[in-house]
Amino acid sequence: MNFSEAENYLYALQPFGIKFGLERVSRLFELMGNPHKSLRFVHLAGSNGKGSTGAMLAAGFREAGLKTGFYTSPHLVYVRERFRIDGKAITEEKFCTLTEKIYPHVERMRKESGPPTFFEALTALAVLYFKEEKTDLVVWEVGMGGRFDATNIVDPLCSVITGISLEHCEYLGDSIEKIAFEKAGVIKAKRPLFCGRVPPSCREVIMKKCLDAGSPAKFVENPFDGEVALYGEFQKYNASLAEAVLEYLSKSLGFDLKKAIFAFSKVHWPGRMQFLSGGILLDGAHNPESATVLANFLNERFFSEKFTVIFGNFSDKDTLCVLKILEPAVSSFIFVPIKGERKCRQPRELQEMLSSFSALKAVSADSLESAFKISSGERTLISGSLYLVGEALKMLAPAEDILDI
Fold first, then answer.
1. 118-132 and 92-112 helices cross at what angle (nearest 10)?
2. What is the DSSP string of 252-309?
3. Domains, the chain, ranges and CATH?
4. What is the rounded distance in angstroms from the CA atom of residue 348 to the CA atom of residue 172?
5. Is the pLDDT of residue 298 over 80?
6. d(Cα 89, Cα 158) in Å, to the nearest integer?
7. The whole model's pTM is what?
8. Closest C-alpha among 405, 372, 402, 364 to residue 386
9. Rounded to whole angstroms, how far apart are CA atoms 111 and 70?
């Protein structure tokens, strides 16, 4: 296969949708010889902050001299972003080679009872990649939820929950406590859990799971007191959580903790409060919690300055609440649809939402390209879904800025 053929083969698994459960991924890994059993993992779940916390952990382990894998989702622009070793995305050549290796196992499953999903196949590819490249440690990010997520097949050195909010309710449950239960599924017997700031009711759910599993729990609720390269006060809390994990693992893995933590001062993570040339700011604030963080950042850094906001979001998000949170920092909205098969809020629907509580000017555009032509040239914020942020990065940023962190 060439790269385009490999990519298309895996994307052809997408119509099989999101299917929770570990049966298919267990079968796929069994056919591959269970390569995950020879690897060491740090498993990350959470509604917000997984990527940033994972980036800090991966940077810290790398700075300390460990060959570090990092598996994350979704990708912003290139599918290769999901698989990194020491900050660099997998090469096209290696991606093709690994796709060819999992191909016969996927096809065997197709004949047996149905193929794995797109995410399950990518998870298998990731494990094979990190094993073949002999990584010392893998930072392993949940796709959705935790309990029945394909990544939950591993037995990690420790588990991490970054935070919990209402999301993916059709899959994870219609209350924050039900979502906490799903995310607590990453807790493994006698493996430590590190948890960031969560509501009291979620803490109760998580503590019960830890007690049942005999797993020590550490709740990290104070901000990091050192330098963090990523923008936003909330990154101090993500850094504090990452610091706690690094401190614990430095004892068993024998690396220099101070050296690892120094990496926080230069870590890079695309698409989250990222500034581009021409006064453009990108941030994938898709739910009320992330929108509050963004609004606080805008207020602290820009005071009364207003932004033109190019905005799009998916239909399963609390978009009305997001718009209400962002509105005080906005001079005008430009609403756009999001490319892809997943159902998104249409521009007209977004205009109706906004007009229900605000007199702010809003216009619709049929694409991000059209939105840029409409934009007035003042400070511009592109926000809402990370998929929209990814569209912007593909248009405005060089590939190496996205592939190499």
1. 130
2. HHT--HHHHHHGGGT---TTSSEEETTTEEEE---SHHHHHHHHHHHHHHHTT--EEE
3. 3-265 (3.40.1190.10), 274-403 (3.90.190.20)
4. 29
5. yes
6. 24
7. 0.92
8. 402
9. 32
